[in-house]
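quick one: zinc ion bound model?
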Amino acid sequence: MPVPSPASSRPPTDSPLPRCGVCNTASRQPVFRPNPPEQAPDLDLRPGEPVRSTMSRWLQQCPSCGYAAPDITRAHPAAAQAVAAAPFRALVAETTHPPLARRFLAWAHVLEETGALHAAAEATLHAAWVADDLGREELSRSWRQEAVALWRGGPPMDDEQTVRVVDALRRSGAWDDAAATAEALRDAMPAEAIAQVIGLELRLIAAEDAGRHTVASALPPPARRPHASHQRIAGRGEGFVAKLRRWFGRG
Ligand SMILES: [Zn+2]
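yep, here:
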């Protein structure tokens, strides 16, 4: 169920409450305006603090039909059918799963049903992060593997998505698949920052280390980094490289 928002983020009392894009029920919902992360993200791009601990406000959820989305006033034309169907009802009623994880899985299910497989993978990975925080390792593993299947079921992946697939495989202990996927990306000569992250992944996979690591541990310390203009920035993976630069204040 939605977490009550702090008073400062509530809409003014004279503005109407948002209405669910699926069932039209009005409800009070948190409005999330994140501050930019200050800490380096994990290798699967889970953001650092202060964003990291705000997951309970990333999605809104309708108290009536259970539809969950970043903005529940918006819904894909096919969302109503997905929300009414048995698989969605079972998902939101699965009380052995953490409520916040169910909210991410609910959004993932709607995305999958409406054909947005990569976005569904992302939302499923978010459910795994919730399980990480609660120490529910089996759920973390199984949701990471579901996320990998969704990524692979969608359109061709860019380098950033492949890095996240590698990390999800590593963190779920799928060593052979993780190693083969990482080696294929390494051999495709990605941009330097991607190559460094993949290098760390390969070392972690070889050590069968399924733990959390940040991109900060993949990159050399600032004094020894080559100037950004010396880096080979290929078209592929440029978004990831740009993000790495932003996180480390260069470029
Ligand atoms: Zn609703």
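The radius of gyration is 19 Å.
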